[in-house]
Amino acid sequence: MEALPAYKAGARPGGRLMHKLSSNELPYPPLPGVLAAVGEAAADLNRYPRMLADELADGIGLHHGVEAEQVVVAAGAVAVLGHALTAFVGEGDEVVYGWRSFEAYPILVGAAGAVATPVALAAGGRLDLPAMADAITERTRAVLVCSPNNPTGPAIHRGEFAEFMAQVPDDVLVVADEAYVDFVTDPQAVRADEILADHGNLISVRTFSKAYGLAGLRVGYALGRPRLIQAIRSVTTPFSVSALAEAAAVYSLQMGEALAQRVAGVVETRDFLVAGLTAEGWNIPDPQGNFVWLQLGVDAVPFSDACQRAGLLVRPFPGEGVRVSVGERLAAERLLEVAATWA
Fold it and tell me: In degrees rounded to 5, what are phi and psi of residue 32?
């Protein structure tokens, strides 16, 4: 375990730092009514929560039009990913994923005792699905597909995903990590929850941490065929989702119109930021999440330092680039001021 890479969380603001754009959080409080629901649930803190958040699983099933037995809930999408690997991957098995992608992948794969098979991204920060399919061997047990890809931004298209799934053996689990799918505006983008019936080896992993603004409560879930979900449930930590988190998520599922308005606001600010960066001369990969990727190479850390001096916290990946979360409009304007001197 000493060889596992450390997960690096986004820096927290302090001093004159005003805008935290390093963790892909929403800059807004929870949806209206959520805090009241949490307060009501807090009256029973002396009691254990539901073992597997069954009320929430029922609500998620209704939300996606699937049975509750096709839903498993855990303490965040990272926990769901870890449980899925625990359920389907053994010592020495291989797990394929694009790279760069979600930073937790090599950690989770290593923790499962598996061998990581990272596949370089294609042009434009896109996952190279043909290359990922070619990387599958007889030892491969799982493939992780992040769409939209974190930290670069592009989403997988339906056609290319269909071709990819046709090449993946039926006994290899495909995990569609869709943490940012609520922000997707690309009409060609695939949504794994809509095609689960077509693939017996596919699961969709979602989270309440992003669009729903519940990052501090840690709630994630997976959707898939009952046999897949049952296997993940069997290794999911009991009582891992608190009663407060379940109450907040259950209530949030009822706030469809408010959620849509909030997502639209984030997308509007994202588009404003991208238009400004493009006008400055930046070449931005197609951003379909609530963040943008700046390909800076060796200038990633110096750029991050410049942002910090301007009161902005961003997420540098040394030697590669900088991911900037979409925050308030003022933060976007300030980011454009800094970026203009680097274009």
Answer: -55, 130
DSSP-assigned letter for residue 118 = E
Q: How sure is the predictor about 3, in pLDDT bands with cuts at 50, 70 and 90?
A: low
Rg (CA), the chain: 20
Listed in sequence order, the residues at least 6 apart from 195 whose beta carbon sits closer than 8 Å to its beta carbon are 202
CA dist 309 and 130 (Å) reads 42
User: Per the confidence metrics, is the pTM higher than 0.90?
Assistant: yes
Return the amino acid letter for 250: V
Q: pLDDT tier at 183 (50, 70, 90 boundaries)? A: very high
Is pLDDT at 7 greater than 60 in this prediction?
no
What letter represents residue 199's amino acid?
A: H
Q: Can you tell me which residue has the tokens 């001021």?
A: 337
Strands of the chain, DSSP E: 19-20, 71-74, 94-99, 115-120, 140-146, 173-177, 202-207, 220-224, 291-295, 312-313, 315-317, 321-325
Question: For the chain, which domains are there?
Answer: 19-29+256-340 (3.90.1150.10), 34-252 (3.40.640.10)
Give yes or no for a contact between 224 and 83, defined as CB atoms under 8 angstroms apart: no
Identify the CA nearest to 75 among candidates 221, 242, 241, 249: 241
Looking at residue 282, the DSSP 8-state letter turns out to be: -
Residue 166 and residue 91: Cα distance in Å, rounded? 27
Angle at 115 (CA atoms; ends 114, 117), nearest 5 degrees: 135
The residue written with tokens 């004159």 in the block is 16
Phi and psi for 10 in degrees, rounded to 5? -65, 140
Structure tokens at 331: 């933060």
